[in-house]
Amino acid sequence: MKIGDMVTRKKYHNDIIFKIIDIEDDVYYLKGVNVRLYADAPISDLEIYTDDKDIEDENNFLKRAYNQPKEERDEYFYLPGKILHIDADKEYLNRCLDYYEKMNIAAIGFNYNEKELKDHVYELLEKYNPNILVITGHDAYYKKKGNENNINNYKNSLNFVEAVKEARKYENSHNKLIIIAGACQSDYEELIKAGANFASSPKRINIHALDPAIVATRMSMADANSDIDLKEIINNTKYQEKGFGGIITKGTMYMGYPR
Fold it and tell me: In the sheet that 46-48 helps form, which strands lie side by side, from edge to edge?
């Protein structure tokens, strides 16, 4: 096996597809292809993945993710909300930006590591004045450290919380700036308390690379004059209410007349 190979882990019943990103002293370092997850394993635990099996049910999920909300395209025109996406993982960022483009959503993205997020979020908000802000990357809950209610037991949740608080200094209203924050296993409750409209992960599970972008896209296309259908938006994510949650707010899309 070599760097770049797609593999699965026998110990976890081959449930997630990884890419080998480094090999050091017989330890293979892995990154989730579709799930925002880093891991490592010995070669004895790895199997080469071939795409003849859709072990993550990825094809059905993508069909749902790319199913655009229906719009009445008669004499009206539509102005979806603009998205600023800040991602600590450049590969996932590019995948999300490609998703926005295919969904015809105006979005701009930036790549900073999790510790840098809080230092850049305010200036980017000032410069681009988006309707929707996505703050994501990688995270993990370390059970061995202790209780899930202690934010210090997470890899990057505190960094996401601090970035959300900085964003709320720019715009305090949950309706004027929609914030989507978190990654795999993040401290959901603390992110919501910090000011996020949507956050991961209520059940401390892994999330899909596209989940933050899917929520952002649905909010971009939701009516600015009406309360969102919260459950419908959450149900569009890969693992639904186990991986993402949020609060009821207005959407960000305005409708105009005539076309």
Answer: 38-42, 27-32, 18-24, 6-9, 46-48
